[in-house]
Specification:
CATH topology: Rossmann fold
CATH class: Alpha Beta
Strand order of the largest sheet: 3-2-1-4-6-5
Number of strands: 6
Strand content: 5-15%
Structural class: alpha/beta
CATH architecture: 3-Layer(aba) Sandwich
Largest sheet: 6 strands, mixed
Shape: globular
Order of helices and strands: HHEHEHEHHEEEH
Number of domains: 1
Oligomer: single chain
Distance between the termini: 18 Å
CATH superfamily: HUPs
Helix content: 40-55%
Length: about 240
Amino acid sequence: MEAKADDHIQNLGVEGINTAFNGMNAAERVVWLHEQFGSRLVLSSSFGLQAAVMLHLVNKHAPEIPVVWLDTGYLFPETYQYAEQLIEKLGIDVKVYQPKYSAARQEALFGKLWEQGEEGVNRYGLINKVEPMNRALTELGADIWISGLRKTQSSTRADRAFAEQQKRTLKVYPILDWADAQVAAYFYDNNLPKHPLEAKGYKTMGDWHSTSPVIEGESAEQSRFGGEKYECGLHLSSDTNDFQI
């Protein structure tokens, strides 16, 4: 079955998916993906500021797609509370994946990696984000990873395509072309609760030590990792060597 699915992905191709998506809305994209690839799909969620959109879209149009939550152990208390609220409201079955090293063990062995410059931040991303996601994809048998990335979120995402190949994993972004206004309208139309930290000036959401509220004149990108980088390591460029699958 895996070889057949791989052949189907190969035959359809990244460009074929990108072309198909251009003529669809987000709900149609989710339905089409499920029709094409079925059990090979997985949705990742950070339970961040806009996470409710993809969770609701998938839960409404293809609830069979498993949801993976990468719990780094360093999320804001409000994020954990928000996750429980969404899980209960939407009735979703979430697969929680955590690092092999607990937060306490990491700090005992390696110190506070986020304070150790680029090398430390990259190692932090590999331990807390990349390795658990690789493990999730392997254990769930997923070849196609759905994410809620959008072009307007950062300069690092502005040139993304709807689909891109990363090693043996195909990454797909059904709401990539959504503007902020579309996200806001979707929350309103579907009566979705907002992350509590949004009201406190947060424009993006990550771990507590690397995310801060946006101050006047600052972009969302500048509120992550002290403005030195935006991506945590999970959504690197498609030619990264960090992902093994």
